């Protein structure tokens, strides 16, 4: 009996000419979309078709944002808004950008992370007419150049800022401070960026109202905790192919991100230690069954070190020198300041690229550590994050932009504000139909007893949901 072997080309062979990495810098390319526009800078505009498919898939998992687009596009609540954005450029962000466009806004966009951009999605946005300046693997100079191309454009000036990390806001303050005369507000979604805004406010240098989306319950609880609970495993598995059972892990920081990471690793059988500066979060870690330690106490024995504090120099060169052979080091915080990567770029240490976003840093005695994403945000640099959770954050961002843009003069002063609790609850309610969930309604008597409106808000504005 004879067997017949059929050899089919792989997807890489079929699409390789479109998806392969081109060493030429996008800044040196002359590209136009099908409409003849060249007001963008992406890796390869020919990847647009693939990016469009990813965006369409993301739309299916972002019910609230799509519902908001459908409900509000007739009213155009962002008509006249000129939004400059600096966020991760992924399929989920693309759905947000196209929603803002459907609501009447003009947008220009750059990436907040040099490794997290999905090139095909950036191409799809550019093909659709969005001025996008981003590609995966930007240099530091490219990063600031892209932000400047979004801001410094003839005949167009932003009146709203959507930031993730504060770099865009910082750039405008540094280079174009007069722009703030026309900017109505800033919406910021990260711990790092919010910290920068509060510093500006405290120093009396914040010249426009700012909305702190990071500390809204729907962002803090769902994006920071549930998202990281799933994506930490995805990022580690894709980069290292490791097994988690029995591994000793230290997680630096027990905020919402740290809680998500610890829960996931514990469920997979890892032995998890926690470091923390805040006694309240530290007590939570202890009550959740984790051993609270100082990093120096366990640095020689752990297999994985994860930072998620939002701080700087959490893992220093001294810590790195004392780590065991093959220890994996990564960061789940927004900024790349948590691990002192710069201290590893010295003549006596050898860097060896193992695969994309994975480096071996080798000591003279042969010891090596495995450094992921060069200390940048692991999940968005090395894997993906759950689309449904990002729908919650993106909807919160859209509502914050609508609120600040349409607020009557005097409602918001030059300060940092939390999203009104009513909007937080509205975002949550838009996602409940996905689970066929049915809310219980208060009776008139119950509402009167609690002193609440039957339709909410059910919590005061200062409320934050903690586990």
UniProtKB/TrEMBL annotation:
Residues 224-385 form the S-adenosyl-L-homocysteine hydrolase NAD binding domain. It is an enzyme of class 3 (hydrolase). GO terms for biological process: one-carbon metabolic process; S-adenosylmethionine cycle. Pfam families: AdoHcyase, AdoHcyase_NAD. The keyword NAD applies. GO terms for cellular component: cytosol. Keywords: Hydrolase, NAD, One-carbon metabolism. GO terms for molecular function: adenosylhomocysteinase activity. Belongs to the adenosylhomocysteinase family. PANTHER family: ADENOSYLHOMOCYSTEINASE, ADENOSYLHOMOCYSTEINASE 3. This is Adenosylhomocysteinase.
């Amino acid at each position: 009996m004879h067997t017949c072997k059929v050899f089919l080309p792989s997807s890489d062979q079929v699409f390789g000419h479109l998806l392969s990495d081109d060493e030429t810098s996008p800044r040196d390319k002359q590209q136009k979309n099908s409409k003849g526009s060249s007001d963008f800078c992406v890796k390869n505009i020919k990847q647009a078709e693939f990016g469009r498919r990813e965006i369409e898939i993301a739309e299916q998992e972002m019910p609230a944002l799509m519902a908001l687009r459908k409900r509000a596009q007739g009213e155009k609540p962002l008509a006249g808004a000129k939004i400059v954005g600096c966020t991760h450029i992924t399929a989920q962000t693309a759905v947000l950008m196209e929603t803002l466009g459907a609501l009447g806004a003009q947008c220009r966009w750059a990436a907040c992370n040099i490794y997290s951009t999905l090139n095909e999605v950036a191409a799809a946005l550019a093909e659709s007419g969005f001025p996008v300046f981003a590609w995966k693997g930007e240099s530091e100079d490219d990063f600031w150049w892209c932000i400047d191309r979004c801001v410094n454009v003839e005949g167009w000036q932003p009146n709203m800022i959507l930031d993730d990390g504060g770099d865009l806001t910082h750039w405008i303050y540094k280079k174009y401070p007069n722009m703030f005369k026309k900017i109505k507000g800033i919406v910021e979604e990260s711990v790092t960026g919010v910290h920068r805004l509060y510093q500006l406010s405290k120093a009396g240098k914040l010249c426009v109202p700012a909305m702190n989306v990071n500390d809204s319950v729907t962002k803090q609880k769902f994006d920071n905790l549930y998202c990281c609970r799933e994506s930490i495993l995805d990022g580690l598995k894709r980069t290292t192919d490791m097994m988690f059972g029995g591994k000793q892990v230290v997680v630096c920081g027990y905020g919402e991100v740290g809680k998500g990471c610890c829960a996931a690793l514990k469920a997979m059988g890892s032995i998890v230690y926690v470091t923390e500066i805040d006694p309240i979060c530290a007590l939570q870690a202890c009550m959740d069954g984790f051993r609270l330690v100082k990093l120096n106490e366990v640095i020689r024995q752990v297999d994985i070190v994860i930072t998620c504090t939002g701080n700087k120099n959490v893992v220093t060169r001294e810590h790195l020198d004392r780590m065991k052979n093959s220890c994996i080091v990564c960061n789940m915080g927004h900024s790349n300041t948590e691990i002192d990567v710069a201290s590893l770029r010295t003549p006596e240490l050898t860097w060896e690229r193992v695969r994309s976003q994975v480096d071996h840093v080798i000591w003279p005695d042969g010891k090596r550590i495995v450094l992921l994403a060069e200390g940048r945000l692991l999940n968005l640099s090395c894997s993906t994050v759950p689309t449904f959770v990002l729908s919650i954050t993106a909807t919160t961002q859209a509502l914050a932009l609508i609120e600040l843009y349409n607020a009557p003069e005097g409602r918001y002063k030059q300060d940092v504000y939390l999203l009104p609790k009513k909007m937080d609850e509205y975002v949550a309610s838009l996602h409940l139909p996905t689970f066929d969930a049915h809310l219980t309604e208060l009776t008139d008597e119950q509402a009167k007893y609690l002193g609440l409106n039957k339709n909410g808000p059910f919590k005061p504005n200062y409320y934050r949901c903690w586990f």
